[in-house]
Specification:
single chain, 2 domains, Glutaredoxin, Nuclear Transport Factor 2, Chain: A, 37% helix, six-stranded antiparallel sheet, alpha+beta
Length: 235
């Protein structure tokens, strides 16, 4: 609630001075920018220049020109169709690439491998398996794979088996892309406990979690085009 209020106050500062819009004007602007949406009501809020919009059974908040909208607690740029909150979270929760314990990961090099991407994954994570084909299509990238078994004992055993395999990348790909679990036993020393400790320190609470070269963090199986865009934009 407090963070939402801060966003509202920030938006209020951005609004130009002058006569406030009427509820009818805001409703018209909302319907123009979201023509398929039925606006049920518009009301002023205690914050100057911010309006409550009731639509689809949910309450959202907009500025008088509907350039920005707070939807389900997230600030959205209407014109660019960008979730500003998501953009900021990628930066605020990021970790500098040189601060990642890359020596605890194994590397998968695709093409020249010039670009860099770090990937925390659980062998039994369905969203990890969903993003794996898209990761496999990336060009000119080195992917640092961190074994991050947080979904139970079976995940831990599979992670150990991958690390102890002679060809980790091959065993990993066979499991994540083709559904064939490791055949080798995980009887060697592994860095898994150190990786888990690092993850707890950095609040890595889900898989997949990706870190790009510019430090941005993304959690979840994002679409292939967004994955490529973030990788291209990382410097």
């Amino acid at each position: 609630m407090l963070s939402k209020l801060r966003i509202c106050l920030y938006m209020a500062v951005l609004i130009s001075s002058g006569a406030a819009a009427s509820e009818a004007t805001v409703k018209q602007a909302m319907q123009k920018k979201y023509p398929g949406v039925q606006v049920e009501s518009v009301a002023r809020t205690p914050i100057a220049g911010i309006y409550e919009v009731f639509v689809g059974g949910g309450v959202h908040y907009v500025d008088e020109n509907v350039n920005y909208i707070i939807m389900n607690g997230r600030l959205v740029d209407v014109e660019r169709k960008i979730d500003i909150t998501e953009e900021r979270m990628r930066v605020l929760t990021g970790v500098r690439f040189d601060q990642l314990p890359l020596d605890l990961a194994f590397r998968k090099v695709q093409g020249k491998g010039t670009r860099k991407l770090a990937y925390f994954s659980d062998p039994n994570c369905p969203f990890c398996k969903k993003i794996e084909p898209d990761l496999a299509q990336l060009e000119n990238v080195t992917i640092y794979i961190f074994l991050y078994p947080i979904l139970g004992p079976d995940s831990y055993e599979k992670s150990k088996a991958v690390w102890c395999a002679k060809d980790r990348v091959k065993v990993w790909d066979e499991m994540m892309l083709n559904g064939n679990p490791p055949k080798t036993a995980g009887t060697c020393d592994t860095p898994i406990e150190k990786i888990l400790a690092f993850g707890r320190q950095k609040a890595i609470n889900g898989t997949p979690t990706l870190f790009f070269a510019d430090g941005q963090r993304v959690t979840g199986a994002i679409p292939a085009d967004q994955l490529k865009r973030l990788l291209d934009g990382a410097r």
